[in-house]
User: What shape does this take?
Amino acid sequence: MIVVSNTSPLCYLILIGHAEVLPKLYGSVVTTQTVLAELRHPAAPALIRAWATTAPDWLKVQADPTPADDTLANLDAGEHTAILLAEKLHADVVLLDESAARVLAVQRGLKIAGTLAVLRDAAQAGLLKLPEALDRLRQTSFRASPELWKSLYGG
Assistant: This one.
């Protein structure tokens, strides 16, 4: 299975202590140099920077695809390169949280999942307790609609 990730899902999974579910669910995750640079950016939380500095072997970093695509110009650089890499690799899924990136990825025929889907799938696989993971996620800057939170908590 080929899974490409943007910055956001990696960040949030690191922040809540559940990045280790990614290799358990997918084997390895592929990302771009731009995404790795965003994870290492001085403005990123120290925990994320430290994780990215000694990234685990299951995170496979590839060069940014070229050329850039003007139809993705409104996205941030990590989203832009993650979508292009997912297309190049014919990825089974691309991990994206931001709605604009998700819409464009779907329009381009890519299958998407986000942080919440990863947590749901990890819980279904017995890798974590979903309510606890969601509680930790809610303590971060992650945003989702009240309806989505309610559906994940089981009503």
User: Anything to note?
Assistant: The chain has a mean pLDDT of 95. The first helix runs from residue 7 to 15. The domain at 3-152 is CATH 3.40.50.1010 (Rossmann fold).
